[in-house]
Design brief:
By secondary structure, the protein is α+β, with helices and mostly antiparallel strands. The chain has a single domain, classed as Immunoglobulin-like (Sandwich). The protein is built from three helices and five strands; from the N terminus they run αβαββαββ. It has a five-stranded mixed sheet. A hairpin with a 6-residue loop joins β2 and β3. 10% of the residues are buried. About 7% of the residues have low confidence.
Length: 120
């Protein structure tokens, strides 16, 4: 083999190894959900800060209709669904409203995504 071919071969090998290493060290797309136990979610209170206190929100359990919750804690229907949910279930809390939500130009509260675990 001549010297040029050896150099090219070594460069290709180095590039391949470097490329593989770079891909393996990249952060994988992170899960946007918050990992939480059933007990913690059952006791979860959404913003109870005076005039910005949450007035209502919606909660979605997979395979069931969305539940409208008045106030800032889970109601009986949501607690019953939570009790029957299994580890790994993703629960979405969205359309979170507070007293300022009706004001023109008010910022929307971002949705929350919870993933159930078995540990408290």
């Amino acid at each position: 083999m001549n010297l040029k071919k050896i150099v090219v071969l070594l460069l290709v090998i180095c590039f391949t190894v470097t490329s593989s290493y770079a891909q393996s060290t990249k952060k994988k797309s992170s899960d946007p959900s918050i990992t939480v136990s059933k007990e913690a979610l059952a006791n979860f209170v959404i913003n109870e800060d005076g005039d910005k206190a949450t007035t209502n929100f919606k909660i979605k359990f997979p395979g069931y209709p969305t539940i409208l919750v008045k106030g800032n804690t889970l109601n009986d229907e949501a607690l019953a669904r939570l009790k029957s949910s299994k580890k790994g279930t993703q629960i979405q809390v969205f359309d979170i409203k507070d007293a300022s939500s009706k004001e023109k130009g008010a910022k929307r509260n971002p949705p929350l995504l919870f993933r159930l675990t078995t540990t408290p």
